[in-house]
């Protein structure tokens, strides 16, 4: 093992070279690039300056309070509300929203078996929260044409056990905004909390509506009567470094229900506002620095560029033979499906990756067919980048049509339907993974269309049983 400074950094650079690029706009999921010169360097410097500061105890490190208060003030001025908490990301913000609602329902209404109402388009983080915190999930369908939840269905699902209703602004899979005002009003009538998942859209939509030529944006934030909490990520359209999100509340009293405090031990008194205890203040400082640098006018300009580019890309996709939009995007997310049975979008995704572009494949679920997800960021908002993307996409569709779709043997699907995911033997797991094209070597195949096609064809519970096996093979350290 080398201890040489340069050799260590060289090894990291070597590893990084195998990843998707995080700059330039060609990775259209997971990363957010402002395209602004010097912004990443500022974030790195701010993060380094606070990397050793422990956010566990704000009385020892009062800078943590100052930075968090500044970010919450900026966010509530944009999106309403009276209190907030800085978290490590959208998942933690969603987890804390559910935890807070559970504790609130217990403490104020005596609910002992709480329920969580989710549209079937709600982010997986809410299902994770329900599993972790012991809530029963009540899933309601969405309109198969608009992919938005029907308010009447939400109202019908509310019971005395309901702790929280969730809506999206926008939903990740389709880029549309649920009818927040209607759902929130119905929840409020029954004394139930309503959370808006604006992790991906809040910062973007909040600033876009300030633009002189802003589109018609549905009401979605904490100024809407009945909305009691909202999650918004700063490491998405705030263009901060990863590990930065905010959970906003209507008031500090509601926020208090989600905090953990413990003094019944011989150590120091503990108060945690997040799921983490010890945590670096680096991401907090980086987010503060980036938001200070870009500012309200800067974010409005970036959001306007993204809006125009999303519109241009959506129009361009609509002109490509073999593709169609699943929904007209209401934010910065585009879902693209096939309207030609000979064009498999999973094959298109593989072809695009070979050309240096990452479009995220989304398997079919319910009324939503298999599709490609495109997250549009400011780095994509160049005329030449849009032209290149649409040109490569059209060529990828042509190659996918020539190759033909991935065919899954119906006998495999029939046999899989009879399996009990919870009772699979090790041998059955090996057979199922082999059918999906995943061998014992650990590495995933270069082309993922066959794997995705098989997983999509399996019952969801069986896919959920197999997915950890697939990912677990990537981790091969001794003892695992």
UniProtKB/TrEMBL annotation:
GO BP annotation list: carboxylic acid metabolic process
N6-(pyridoxal phosphate)lysine found at: 236
Gene3D superfamilies documented for this protein: Aspartate Aminotransferase, domain 1, Type I PLP-dependent aspartate aminotransferase-like (Major domain)
Keyword list, A-Z: Aminotransferase, Lyase, Pyridoxal phosphate, Transferase
Cofactor: pyridoxal 5'-phosphate
Signal peptide as annotated in the record: none
Membrane-spanning intervals of the chain: none
One example GO MF annotation: transaminase activity
Entry-linked PANTHER family: PTHR42735, SPHINGOSINE-1-PHOSPHATE LYASE 1
Family assignment from sequence similarity: Belongs to the group II decarboxylase family. Sphingosine-1-phosphate lyase subfamily.
Protein name as annotated: Aminotransferase class V-fold PLP-dependent enzyme
Taxonomic source organism: Streptomyces tabacisoli
